[in-house]
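pasting for ref
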Amino acid sequence: PNHAALALPDAAVLAAVASGKCAGCGAEVLADVRVCFRCGLVPVVLEPGNHCVLVLGPGRISDKLDSDRRDRLVQWLRANEKVGFGVEVLEHEIPRLPFVLVRGVGAITSTTIIGSLERLGIEATAVVGSPLAHPAMRKHVWRMATRGFTLVAAILAAPAMLYGPIAFLVLPFIGLAFGVVYAVARRSAARTTVSSLPTSRPALPPGLQGRIAQLPALVPTIAQRRHREALGTVVGRVLALLRGGTGDAAREISAELEHAINLAAVAVRRMDDIESMMTRRDFDPADADHRAVMQERDMWAARLLDLTATLDALAARLAAAQARVGVQRSDDALASLRANVEALEEVQRL
């Protein structure tokens, strides 16, 4: 069977359901699925909350983030604009460490952002409430205020050094200057460098939503990348049916689509287990039982490929039915989908 064909969803399918790119591997990620099918990283989904994400390094406090990492960060954020990121500020400056990347996000969102930043080689942490609750942030504010005050004090003290009697007049202004400089440093350090506006999407049918919610735990357990991507191909096509122009018609068959995802998950896990078994030293292709296992793998792969093709055909025929053309053909495509699902069930029973 052509395993490669299972792992390559076309650009049109991805465009309909993708929300951005994975920070770990650069693959397209599906907006409704909290896992990257290529590498298993949990992608970012913006949800409101009371957490701030602080970038801590690499680098020393009050030093600027190196330009290569800043560019890498901007590139990733730009690729995930559909998630709700705005990078206008970060694009035009290189901030000093530590700095506030985003604020007002939920705990899960902050965790996924930190995980993605780690893949980009950037150290980050989350705090609840004010970013100044973090010791590194307070140290940064104090250091920047000290630098600023030293400069201001030198400017104010210069006249007094030239003419001693006015020193008493300058002293109150020096005290006031420290308060102003500290307030400016505090405000500058607490400024958010990336805007975040959570986006909402129409809810999926409950059964499908529940099935998709299980994928983040399942996908990392699949060892072979091509099997993870094969599952992602099926999920992507199901979501494209629901999110595309044929969404209303597709929702009427949500039970079949949910079952298709379930059986695709069973198929890729079984193929993954079989191929793991085939790498053992005691596996003998000449043995009858081992040949039967290999044939089972090929049956799963063939059925899964047929299921993917059937989902493509169903999408095309539902679109035609919406245009009042080929209504009977869409019924045929649904029958074909059910037949393919039943074929996968038959392999599962073997």
